[in-house]
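hey can u check if this looks right to u? its 154 residues, i copy pasted from the old doc so theres a chance i mangled smth
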Amino acid sequence: PPFLHDAPELRATARSTAASGVQWCLLYICEAHASDTWPLKFSHEQPRPASIEQRCEYAARCAASLGLAAAGFRTMVDTMDDACNAALCAWPTAYYVVDAAGTLLYIGEAKEGDYGYDVHELTAFVRRWCRAHRPAPKAAAEGCAGARRVGSRR
């Protein structure tokens, strides 16, 4: 599955943009190929969750096994009626960038006829955004209590 192959790039970009204040999030939606509804014989298949608690367990296991939790990703879980998935059309994989004001800045999803999405488009967008929104550097002594200019008597 494409998302499994995207994880290393997502982890690396999350770590490299952490200082910029970017908050990465995994929204765990319905099982793409639940073993009891649409099995494809992948080694990671599991049955569709029967409760929100079970879906939360699946999400935590997914985030941990992909190394996303360790890379600073927040993990969120869709409701059992799949309301987030329905609203975002996120199945099987889609990527979104939303700013702090809630403005949707980017939607990344597979192009028509393509099997998966090129995650490098997402990571390039996030890196460009971070560069464009980088705060201006402060003067070296600004904000340092007791800092003096060379040659001052203070």
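Confidence is low (pLDDT under 50) at residues 143-154.
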